[in-house]
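User: Quick one: structure for sequence A, then sequence B.

Assistant: Sequence A:
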Amino acid sequence: MIGWIILGIVLIVLFWFIGTYNMFITLKNRVKNAWAQVDVQLKRRYDLIPNLVETVKGYVKHEREVFEKITDLRTRAMTSGSIKDIGEANNQLTGALKTLFAVAEAYPELKANENFLKLQEELTNTENKIAFARQFYNDIVMNYNAAQERIPAALVARIMGLTPAEYYPVPEEERGRITVSF
């Protein structure tokens, strides 16, 4: 009788271990998939930027610093290694693009250019998709990291050698208080 009880306990622990192991594999793959979605949107953004810069260059001859900064930040964002570095470089690139659009405001012919308007709209859509993909990625990372910290699943996470995934960083300007005035 005691032998059956011990066998039952061993089977319960074995099934729990297998279920928990599989849960971590699923979560790990979801994190990879969510990051791939962010990466796809970032690639789309990187592809749009040179076309946008070339269009603006045609009208704006004296804003060389802005173009160089955007080009440098684009290169830095594309070659960054860690998620934190990629996030920070892209956040700086977002700021530089805002500067580019602010410069474009001073050139009425550019603002009326159909190609510029189309690129601006595509970039805005891509920025929205990046924001959504970033939020989705961070939600998946939160689930993955929380599962690693819960007891008793934390034991399986340690056996598997899992480490917490990095969150995509929030831009500093989005951390501040938003002031609304009328």
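Sequence B:
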Amino acid sequence: MKVCVPSAKNGGLEDNVGQHFGMVPTYTVLDTETNDVQIVENTSQHNGGVGLPPELLSEAGVHVMLCGGLGTKAVNMFSEFGIEVFVGAQGTVETAISDWKEGNLASPNSENVCQGHDHDHDHQH
């Protein structure tokens, strides 16, 4: 199973979780069966490229996305690509994956996803 975490900088297990999944420079993908780590550059339209992050990560074979938070539209897009989302990830990528393995991250619901653009937190969308 491939688990993805948006990375704040160059990616890897020691990098910090990027708190805006669409705008991060890289995604770190861990294959939980082989422990292989893959760094996927964010070439989506959010960073001047083409396509959306769910498409990009689907092409990389991702099954699960762990992130700090995201909006309902993004949750639905990941679902369309068959990628399961968990929110509440923080700290390093490795910490986020450990938290997910221990069942400490939540599935998105009406109480923990961004509902619109009138919120006040430190990311842009």
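The beta strands are 2-7, 26-31, 37-41, 64-67, 84-87. Confidence is low (pLDDT under 50) at residues 117-125.

User: Thanks, that's what I needed.
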